[in-house]
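*** Fold description ***
***
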Amino acid sequence: MRSTEVAPQAGLRALFLGFLVVILAGALLLLLEGETVGASGRQDKDAVVVSPGDTLWEIADRFSPDSVDLRVVVQELVELNGLESKVLRPGQVLQVPNARF
């Protein structure tokens, strides 16, 4: 009789381990996704492709509310994108934070 009691326990153990693997895989996916999604569920940054004639000031104005000082936004764009110059090239991709503005 003892062998019949062990079989259900082994099945439960396998079920538990399978459940644990699914939970851990889900947690890993959430952690990886968390790198691009903020606590609000929105992305922390948007990518903007620079068009001919675009300036940092225009991009800052386009992606920030009127109540924010554009000088602060321009400086944030420079720092976020590691720009050494404020001159932009058409086709250049800039990260624009949307969670802070």
Residues 1-35 form one domain. Confidence is low (pLDDT under 50) at residues 35-42. Helices lie at 2-34, 56-62, 70-81. Residues 59 and 100 are 15 Å apart (CA to CA).
